[in-house]
Write a structure and sequence with these properties.
single chain; 86 residues; 0% strand
Length: 86
């Protein structure tokens, strides 16, 4: 550990600060627009991924179908698990 870091830790000071809500938060219309764009983009992406999986299933390409399904569901489950833990 570098000497400077030991000095800060011995004196009870650290650069690590917990996350907290700022007292002067403001949300603009542009912020709201970007949230909506992000949500719509995510839903469109999910719909296109499901479309690809359905097309693989109809074409009887089952290996591709299952891999597509894994790559749709695995991130969703990881995201849900992380969200629940917080």
């Amino acid at each position: 550990m570098p000497k400077g870091a030991r000095h800060f830790l011995r004196n009870g000071r650290s650069y690590d600060e917990p996350d907290r809500m700022p007292s002067n938060i403001s949300i603009t219309n542009f912020d709201l627009l970007m949230y909506v764009v992000a949500i719509v983009g995510h839903l469109v992406d999910l719909g296109l991924d499901i479309n690809v999986a359905v097309r693989y299933s109809i074409a009887k390409n089952m290996v591709e179908f299952w891999w597509t399904l894994v790559f749709i569901l695995l991130p969703a489950f990881v995201n849900t698990a992380v969200s629940i833990r917080m």
